[in-house]
Specification:
- The chain is mostly helical.
- The chain folds into three domains: about 70 residues, no CATH class; about 130 residues, Bacterial polysaccharide co-polymerase-like; about 180 residues, Helix Hairpins.
- About 70% of the residues lie in helices and about 5% in strands.
- Strand 2 and strand 3 form a beta hairpin.
- The longest helix is centred in the last third of the chain and has 99 residues.
- It is flat, with a radius of gyration of 53 Å.
- The N and C termini lie close together (about 10 Å).
Amino acid sequence: MEEQHQTYSLRDLLAILFKHKYKILIPFVVIAIGTVVVAKLTTQKQFVARAVLMVKFGREFQPVSEMPGQGPPGINQDAIINTEMQILTGSDLAKKLLETAGVYNLYPDLTKSEARGTALQEMASLQFRQNLFVKPVARTNLIEVYYRHDNPVVAAKAVNQLVDLFQEKHLEVFSENKTPFLEEQEKAYQEKLKESENRLTGFRQKYEVYALDDQKGLLIKQRADLDTQIKTEESRIKELQARYAYWKDDKNIVTDLVANSLRNQVNASELKEQQLLQKYTESSRLVQEVRKDIELTKEQLHKQESEVRKQQLATIESELNPLQVKVASLKRQLAQVEGETRAIDQRQEQFRELTRDVASNESNYQVYLKKSEEARISEDLDRRKMTNIQVIERASVPLMPMQTDKKKIYGIGFFLAVAFPLGLAFVSEMLPQGLTIPHYGEKKLGMPVLVAIPLKK
């Protein structure tokens, strides 16, 4: 049987609503009253003070490296903005503000608390940070600082004090006293530079290294020519050795005219032998004569191949021995040239090492000279409290409290007050309405059950 889908008319829907009117009205009233209570409790007036800071990417974000050749890393604007925001919202800055402004001036309610000392500071710091909001302005290097408080004057004063303390904290975090170390390194490398220059001058006067490059160029050209000749002759030697190995191996076939003729005779005699065996027995005289011819021909073929191999090997040896002697002589010449080249290389390497030493000491000296000057300038700016954090807009006393979004609360409450009771009513209607156990039927109706019929789908 096909399953029948139940449809509801408007009358049926109204009947369901009337049937479950109490399940609808009671939750509706409870949720509505709760919504009104929540809306009333969240209407506490709080004032928000706002300040705007600008982060200029200057000297603080280009640290002076103590080691030469190590430049500062590239400036990442997002990373710097996030770093400044972390400093602003840190607990150290909050505690300094509480020490400056006074815990009870910001939060008079804490006078009723039993906490004192460090516990009071931590409680006030946590409460202050919960009411402090910092966010960056998109596509700019600006930071907005918000602080909410019941008292508008206190809110504005706290934000301005926080900004002032933040500028001092910024200098404390990014400033470093490196001038004495850099000056010591500058003097040390100045002395090293003078020593290296004196060593280079003495080496030039002792070995007269001014013509080493030309002499080395001639030796390099001579070495290249010898190397080319050696490779050419070694290639010929390898070719002759391969030919020698070929003729030395008895398995390789000799292909001269006599050997080929004898090999053809052997093949013809073997073919004749096979034909005779088809007609005669192996003891037949004709078969025996053919086999003797085959053996004689093979002996002649073996002798011919041996003579040809001996001739070829002798010819190859006559060419190979002079080439090996020539290659050995060329290698001796090459070794002599390389020895002279190494001697020049050693002097030239010493000259280059002394030159590099002078250049390195000169570079390090200039680097530390520049870094020392930069460090002195930076420390002088720090003493003058000149920072790259600029206050674009200081916090003013807010005139109007922060508005609570009551419409959103009422909207959510109305939706829940309507949706939940209606859903409860229709779910109750969809649940089974019958009595599934005979005992429940007797108890509900007050009558005995005579027959119980099982339900079969």
